[in-house]
Write a structure and sequence with these properties.
The complex is a heterotrimer of chains A (269), B (312) and C (256).
Chain A (H helix, E strand, L loop, with lengths): L1 H15 L1 H4 L32 H37 L1 H16 L2 H11 L4 H28 L2 H8 L4 H38 L10 H8 L8 H32 L7
Helix pairs in contact in A: 1-3, 1-10, 3-4, 3-6, 3-8, 4-6, 5-6, 6-8, 7-8, 8-9, 8-10, 9-10
Chain B lengths: L3 E12 L2 E13 L4 E5 L6 H8 L7 E9 L2 E2 L5 H7 L4 E4 L3 H4 L6 H8 L6 H14 L5 H6 L7 H13 L5 E5 L7 H16 L4 E6 L2 H7 L2 E6 L2 E7 H6 L4 H8 L44 E4 L2 E3 L7
Parallel strand pairs in B: 3-8, 3-9, 6-7, 7-8
Antiparallel strand pairs in B: 1-2, 1-4, 4-5, 9-10, 10-12, 11-12
Helix pairs in contact in B: 4-7
Chain C lengths: L1 E10 L5 E11 L4 E5 L6 H8 L7 E6 L2 E2 L5 H10 E4 L13 H11 L5 H14 L16 H13 L5 E5 L7 H18 L2 E6 L2 H7 L2 E6 L2 E7 H6 L4 H9 L10
Parallel strand pairs in C: 3-8, 3-9, 6-7, 7-8
Antiparallel strand pairs in C: 1-2, 1-4, 4-5, 9-10
Helix pairs in contact in C: 3-5
The chains are: A mainly alpha (269), B alpha/beta (312), C alpha/beta (256).
């Protein structure tokens, strides 16, 4: 878990501080210095087909996708948790409506939906945000609803109700905090998923648009030179992998750490 | 030769918080056709003792001592030979039905799977049904086809009992057979175990905190506290004239005998009191009790107490 | 007085089950009534109806003559302070994310009964009463033993100083010595505060030791009711006799 956290923080930090860390302007084209090989000064990771510094582009590359992924995760978590809580706690028609929407969305293949949206609307930050999130909150809502159903029957929730606590008190004080562990795990894993999804879209050209030095865009640019100048492909691919790996480590680590908390010791003898 | 002989059995666990001494130098014997009860509360090590006898302890357990089943040393047996013993010569009915039943298999197949003889499937089914009915299931065919989660905790417990005794093993070890059951079910379970005990060549080792169950079932009772045996005797002796202060206090705590709570709490097995393990809670503790660790003393044949000041 | 007046409860989902039928019972302050019956006879349902967690399909629950269903929100809030419940030993009896101190004070804070200094004093008193070590206050539920948790749960409930307590099998899964200390706790508290106690249990020995009156429940109906000693000496209903037989108690051996 710590590994994951460290990886993400480092990469996230680097992306944030890119303007200060980057040795060159990532967009600056220098046609007299194309395909410079890596591990040489001054371009530590070489240059690409248009002479742009690879290291600088890597540093800037994450900014957009990471931002989108973080925002998407937050939105998905919020919407999913809220609807899951309402459906799980109140039941009745609220549950009926939410479950109906959830089941409908579950029936639509994620990819198709995303591509359709992107096809109809013009590519842009807002569109991407919408496309990523439109279907993803559904899975989380379902999990959240299940957790809430279980928590609602817990001794401490019933106890609070027997003391006269109202629905919102129970939801905010007892149920919501107990949802965080599971949602945190799912959220981390989802984050990795978003990064991957966005990378795929950008690679295909319908995500982040060039000349923005997004990692996946760099991958796409490097395609023709895969065998002649592999470093142009390898570095961005590596970074994307590390980010997703980090997110997964964080998610799994969180899950392991939280499991211990909720289990009772060795058991009675 | 007795059926089961346990000689100075000790079990400890090495945990990050320290060494937990769950069982300390326990020695006893169970004869053919005998029913022996172990009376003890949570945390005294009784479940660990049973688990050690069938060698189903987790890997961080440290075991020492000897266990003989009809002369055969159990602790040094190969795992394969041990497997052949389990379920056939030695039956084990564990405490936690929730974790002992496979949630993905129907009850019926879990019971018939436990049957070791090579009978036709229909015969095994019939056998299972008979056993289920014996244990109070009015409609055994329904249970047969059901999955564990459809049954209540009490019913799951009874299913485990059926699976444990279906091969009519020579030695049946039972861990808290009546925990959480209401009186009617408890009475039923007691009846069936009485029948099991009456079967030829069957011995029963029953661990429970419920003295009423042991009173009905057991010929002999051993009282366990903080990993040790503190009193041994016939059922009548132990319950009518208890000698060890813990046994006395335990009986006084019963609602039908005054409901007097025992002061303090049972000791942590990783941090045992000095001297006699019971002394902090004992109503007749003397100064020497916190220093000397008493050994089991023989009062008369078959009657032992681990207390130098036990009243006579 | 807390009264159940001809309470019935029918559950529709997942199947139609008649959990309670025409149950009438009156709980008075200072008295303990034992409610005995087998698992699944409806005792827990009655308990939940008694504290307002469930509504009866027909019949009423009355506190000092007032129907709780018809109470205004403020009155109903007060009702929840005066009538409390202890459950059997449910999964997650305490919020795993809250330290014990917070769980203990929840009721008091919800009803705004004490200020900071009062809280400190009250916690100290509560811990003494329930024989709990103050060192558990900053700890979390997963660090406590089963017996400690049940004591905390009871302390939590008693912190509201209810006039009526419904205890639903509070000690069924516990060892004998633990059971006796918790039952004594309830008994002492009752004597001190004049609390009315409805003790739901399947253990006749407990009933005999604690309750002045006994109600026997079979499949949602009360089949016999009377003073404890009479029920033991001359049970009238065959179901009562069966329960007494099953309890394996050696009669004649009841030393007070």
């Amino acid at each position: 878990m710590i590994t994951g956290l460290v990886l993400l923080v480092v990469i996230g930090g680097a992306s944030l501080l890119a303007p200060f860390l980057s040795p060159f302007d990532p967009l600056e084209v220098r046609l007299n210095n194309r395909f410079a090989p890596p591990f040489q000064r001054p371009h530590l990771l070489g240059t690409d087909a248009l002479g742009r510094d690879v290291l600088s582009r890597l540093l800037y590359g994450g900014r957009l996708s990471l931002l989108l992924a973080v925002l998407s995760t937050l939105i998905t978590l919020s919407v999913g948790m809220l609807l899951g809580m309402l459906a799980g706690y109140f039941g009745g028609w609220v549950d009926g409506v939410v479950s109906f929407v959830v089941n409908t969305f579950l029936g639509i293949p994620d990819v198709v939906f995303t591509l359709a949206l992107l096809g109809v609307l013009r590519p842009g930050f807002g569109t991407l945000l919408l496309a990523l999130n439109a279907g993803s909150w559904v899975g989380l809502a379902r999990v959240a609803r299940g957790e809430v159903l279980f928590l609602r029957e817990s001794g401490f929730v019933e106890g609070a109700r027997a003391m006269g606590a109202g629905a919102w008190y129970c939801l905010l004080k007892h149920i919501l905090p107990n949802l965080f562990p599971t949602m945190g795990v799912l959220g981390s894993l989802r984050f990795g998923g978003f990064v991957l999804e966005l990378a795929a879209l950008s690679y295909l050209g319908i995500g982040v648009q060039p000349p923005f030095p997004d990692w996946a865009v760099m991958l796409n640019d490097a395609r023709p030179y895969l065998f002649t100048h592999p470093h142009l492909f390898i570095f961005p691919a590596l970074i994307i992998t590390v980010v997703i790996l980090g997110a997964n480590c964080l998610g799994e680590g969180l899950r392991d750490a939280l499991d211990v908390r909720f289990q009772r010791g060795i058991g009675e003898s | 030769m007795s059926l089961l002989t346990v000689d100075a059995l000790s079990v400890s666990f090495r945990m990050p918080s320290g060494t937990v001494k769950a069982v300390r130098e326990v020695s006893f014997a169970v004869g053919e056709n005998e029913v022996v009860g172990i009376l003890g509360e949570s945390g005294c090590g009784k479940s660990v003792l049973l688990t050690a006898l069938v060698r189903l302890l987790p890997s961080n357990a440290l075991v020492s001592g000897k266990v003989f089943l009809r002369g055969e040393e159990l602790l040094t047996l190969s795992e394969r030979k041990m497997e052949r013993l389990r379920g056939k010569k030695v039956g084990f009915v564990p405490q936690n039905p929730g974790t002992s039943l496979n949630p993905l298999l129907r009850i019926g197949s879990q019971i018939t799977e436990a049957i070791s003889t090579s009978l036709r499937r229909s015969h095994k089914r019939a056998q299972a049904m008979v056993s289920l009915q014996q244990f109070g299931f009015g409609e055994p065919w329904v249970i047969f086809r059901a999955y564990p989660h459809m049954l209540s905790g009490g019913m799951q417990q009874r299913v485990l009992v059926v699976a444990g005794i279906i091969n009519q093993p020579r030695l049946v070890m039972v861990d808290e057979p009546t925990k959480g059951l209401d009186p009617s079910l408890r009475a039923r379970v007691v009846e069936v175990f009485q029948e099991v005990a009456r079967l030829p060549n069957t011995a029963l080792l029953c661990v429970s905190h419920d003295y009423l169950v042991l009173q009905r079932l057991a010929h002999r009772v051993m009282v366990m506290y903080a990993g040790e045996l503190v009193e041994i005797g016939s059922t009548k002796e132990v319950f009518h004239t208890p000698l060890h202060p813990y046994t006395v206090s335990l009986l006084w705590a019963l609602p039908e005998r005054g409901m007097r709570p025992i002061p303090g709490t049972s000791p942590s097995l990783s941090n045992l009191p000095s001297g006699c393990s019971f002394h902090p809670r004992c109503f007749q503790a003397r100064s020497s009790c916190s220093v000397d660790h008493p050994s089991l003393q023989r009062i008369s044949p078959g009657r032992w107490v681990r207390c130098p000041y036990a009243r006579f | 007085m807390l009264a159940f007046e001809r309470v019935s409860k029918v559950f529709e989902k997942p199947q139609r089950i008649k959990a309670l039928e025409d149950v009438s019972l009156t709980l008075r302050r200072g008295i303990t009534i034992g409610l005995v019956g087998e698992s699944g006879c409806g005792k827990s349902t009655l308990a939940r109806i008694g504290v307002g967690l469930l509504t009866p399909s027909s019949g009423r629950v009355l506190l000092e003559g007032r129907d709780i269903q018809k109470m205004q929100p403020r009155e109903r809030f007060l009702f929840h302070r005066r009538v409390q419940i202890v459950f059997q030993n449910p999964l997650r009896a305490l919020n795993p994310l809250l330290p014990i101190r917070e769980s203990l004070l929840e009721g008091v804070r919800l009803h705004r009964l004490l200020d900071d200094k009062g809280e400190k004093r009250w916690i100290r008193e509560l811990l003494e009463w329930t024989e709990l070590d103050p060192e558990i206050l900053p700890r979390f539920p997963h660090e406590l033993s089963g017996g400690q948790i049940q004591r905390v749960v009871i302390a939590r409930v008693l912190s509201l100083q209810p006039d009526f307590l419904i205890a639903d099998e509070p000690t069924s899964a516990l060892d004998p010595s633990l059971q006796s200390s918790i039952l004594r706790l309830l008994e002492n508290w009752q004597k001190k505060r004049g609390m009315g106690l409805l003790l739901i249990t399947h253990d006749f020995a407990v009933v005999r030791a604690m309750a002045q009156e006994v109600a026997v429940m079979e499949k949602g109906r009360i089949v016999e009711y009377g003073p404890t000693e009479k029920i033991f000496a001359e049970p009238e209903h065959p179901y009562t006799e069966k329960l007494l037989r099953d309890s394996l108690l050696p009669f004649g051996l009841m030393v007070k």
